[in-house]
Amino acid sequence: MTTYATPDQLASWLGATYTAPEEEEATRMLGRASQLIDTATRGRAQQAYDGRLSQGHLIPAHPVTPWTQDDYQEALADAACAQVEFWLEFGEEHDIVGLTGFANAGRLQIGKLPGRLGARARDRLVEAGLLSARVWIE
Question: Does 135 fall in a domain?
Fold first, then answer.
């Protein structure tokens, strides 16, 4: 399993908003984020990262020009960094137990809980066409 981003890319992504985790912790979190992304894309992320997708196999959100392997690698790095940013905001434990604190009259409102994949990570994967199994037909 490939880790789609490096600790340096994470630090750049986070900017001044968050303090980047130490390198060992950043590597661990990016590995987990990459695994979640691969699961969410049903393996298409790894194929795109490795260049094993045929030209035009996936449809990016705006298919003006076909995406290259470099384009996919950049999108996956962004998505992994965005996922770690999501965990830094809400807590990595959300991936297992869901968010707490969204209660209404003592009841947990399931509809208000975000999914396991952070919104920015999801947006980047949608933009790359990796969350869909659509194919290009010419």
Answer: no
**Is residue 138, in this structure, part of any structural domain at all?**
no
Whole-Å CA distances, 66 to 12, 21, 38, 58, 73? 27, 35, 21, 9, 14
Across-strand partners of 107?
104
Q: How far apart are CA 110 and CA 82, in angstroms?
A: 23
For the stretch 60-110, pLDDT in tens is 555 566 778 899 999 999 999 999 999 998 888 766 655 554 445 555 555
- Structural domain containing residue 60: 7-127
Q: How far is CA 61 from CA 9, 24, 123, 128, 131, in A?
A: 24, 34, 10, 6, 11
Report whether 37 contacts 76 (CB < 8 A).
Answer: yes
